[in-house]
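Ticket #151: bound-state structure for copper (II) ion.
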Amino acid sequence: MASRVVGLLGFVMIVAAVGANAATYNVLDQLGWSIPPLGNIAYRTWAAGKSFDVNDTVVFNWTGTHDVAEVSKTDYDSCTSTNTIGNITTVSPYSVLLSGNDSRYFICTVSNHCGLGQKVTLSIGSASSLAARVLSSFALSALAFAFLNHS
Ligand SMILES: [Cu+2]
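RESOLUTION: The complex was predicted; output attached.
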C-alpha cells in the first residue's frame, strides 16, 4: 500500500516536472551527431520522441570529422550546403537555442554525410508533441511504479 502511494506521488512529480520549461536535449543522446548506421530514421525517431519548446537548448556533440549547418527546408531535403543560415560550425559541442516557433533544419556538410542521413529536423511545440509528452511521462511513471512495487 505504501509503495502504491509512493508510485502515485512519483507520477504526480513526473507530470509536474514535464510541465517545467527550458530543457536541454543532446542530439541522438549517447550516440551524438554522427552518420546513423541505418540512415536518417535514427534522427527522425529521436526527434519524434522529444517535445521541443521555445527556450529549450539542443546540443550537437561529435567526435571525428563532422560539422553542423542550419539550412532551409528545401536545402535540408536536398542536402544542399551552399546556402546555409549563418556559419557552418566545425567545433563540438554546438548548442542551439530554440528561440522561436519555427521548425529548424540542421545538416552535416562534410562529404555525403547528409545524404547518408546525418540531418535532423527540430519541430517546436505541437499538439502531437504534447500528446507524446504526456504519453512518455505516463510510461515513465508506470516504470517507476513497477520498480517501486518490485522492491
Ligand atoms: Cu558528418
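RESOLUTION NOTES: The two ends are 13 Å apart (CA to CA).
TICKET STATUS: resolved
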